[in-house]
Amino acid sequence: MAAKPVEVCVKAATGAPDILGDCPFSQRVLLTLEEKKVPHEKKLINVESKPDWFLTISPGGKVPVFKCDDDKWVPDSDVITQIIEEKYPNPSLVTPQEYSSVGSKIFPSFVKFLKSKDPNDGSEQTLLDELHALDEHLKAHGPYVNGENISAVDLSLAPKLFHLEIVLDHFKGWKIPENLTYVHAYMKLLFNRESFIKTKPSKEHVIAGWAPKVNA
């Protein structure tokens, strides 16, 4: 008998509740399931108007949440991807401990720069420094963070870099410098993977999802 698909609740698109949304943490979980070829059922959650059944299983109202074997729903993409790795160990997506935090400051640096109204607050330079550090790591160890094979850290970074590229260009006219050639090659590699193409949100939905945060 075929295994029952695992269930995961993820964000629906802003203004389009029947379309997969723009949450990078939800996409990270979906990427992990796709890379491991785990059959899964997506439940799209309209985060603007969360249904009662969802608030029952996720009292904090956060996505993603993942249904475990004991019918318990678990939040937090860090925890969820670890559970998936333990239950479905092949192919392994384990990132060696020494590389597990590579690029981890890029997303908060991006958000700070995106929201910044002061061109002299150093937020742009901080983001550039983080991207440069990733470029240097990929130059030495690439094409992925852990060499030839994709791993968990790449699946965490991929959606965040996708958002960064779209959102900073749209709201600030800012692009990742061309001289960061290893970062550009890395993004191209990630964004062209079948798993990414199947789970990525549309550019329009990414922009719509960030607009309230930019204008806050």
From TrEMBL:
The keyword Oxidoreductase applies. Keywords: Detoxification, Oxidoreductase, Transferase. Gene3D superfamilies: 1.20.1050.10, Glutaredoxin (3.40.30.10). One of its GO terms (biological process) is ascorbate glutathione cycle. CDD domains: GST_C_DHAR. One of its GO terms (molecular function) is glutathione dehydrogenase (ascorbate) activity. Residues 13-92 form the GST N-terminal domain. It catalyses: RX + glutathione = an S-substituted glutathione + a halide anion + H(+); L-dehydroascorbate + 2 glutathione = glutathione disulfide + L-ascorbate. Transmembrane segments: none annotated. InterPro entries: DHAR1/2/3/4, Glutathione-S-Trfase_C-like, Glutathione-S-Trfase_C_sf, Glutathione_S-Trfase, Glutathione_S-Trfase_N, Thioredoxin-like_sf. This is Glutathione S-transferase DHAR2-like. The lineage of its organism: Eukaryota, Viridiplantae, Streptophyta, Embryophyta, Tracheophyta.
